[in-house]
Amino acid sequence: MDNKKLGVIGGMGPQATSVFFEKVIEHTAANNDQEHIDMVILNHTGLPDRTQVIQKGNKEDFLEAISGDLRLLEMAGVHHIAIPCNTSHYFFEDMQRMTSIPLIHMVDETMKQVQQRFGAGSKVGILATNGTISSGIYRLSAEKYGLELHEPKEELQQLAMEIIYDDVKGNKDVSPAKLEALIHTLVYEQQCRAVILACTELSCITLTEFYRECAIDAMDVLVERSIILSGKTLTR
């Protein structure tokens, strides 16, 4: 397979973009610099907050802001574009219509992997922003793959938002135990087979091995697809 240049629209948030980059490097089988993926990363932190845009119904604000990024990546000659932000995939079809470069569908790829791993009909939990939950993007994809998506009740959802916005985006030290408690509730009290970490801020938190077995990290799925589509091999 030919080596293909990868474009990345990041900054949503910047720490998550950094983690994405590090994971791509870590999971690409390479013996020298030249065997790694050529990447063009735009750390566009000024993009409007996705949850606020969705809740206010002002999608044109986001699309106008990201249109320049798509043009820059076209000029850079990338072959695929990864966007390490789950909530932004609410605008996926609109963004894809704005460019001829294939975008990697983080949500769809994640639900496909959940189905392959746990089987159709499985009940899976989700931890994400209010914007991702209310947009229904994971709900629609779950229906497509025959999965039962279990969305958190209000109290649990508020705790997830605190971790995402107050802790990670607020650049605080976050104890994995805080996130693991939410995963524990969804798996052991609400009988989910697994929990999708559907916010890249949650990917910035290193879980203990026990809870990693209960979680499907959408960031990891995006990393794997980005490496494969760039013509590289995953590390074992």
From TrEMBL:
Family matches, as SUPFAM superfamilies: Aspartate/glutamate racemase
Keyword Transmembrane helix in record: no
InterPro entries: Asp/Glu/hydantoin_racemase, Asp/Glu_race, Asp/Glu_racemase_AS_1, Asp_race
Keywords: Isomerase
Molecular-function GO term, any one: amino-acid racemase activity
Membership in a protein family: Belongs to the aspartate/glutamate racemases family.
Protein name per its UniProtKB record: Aspartate racemase
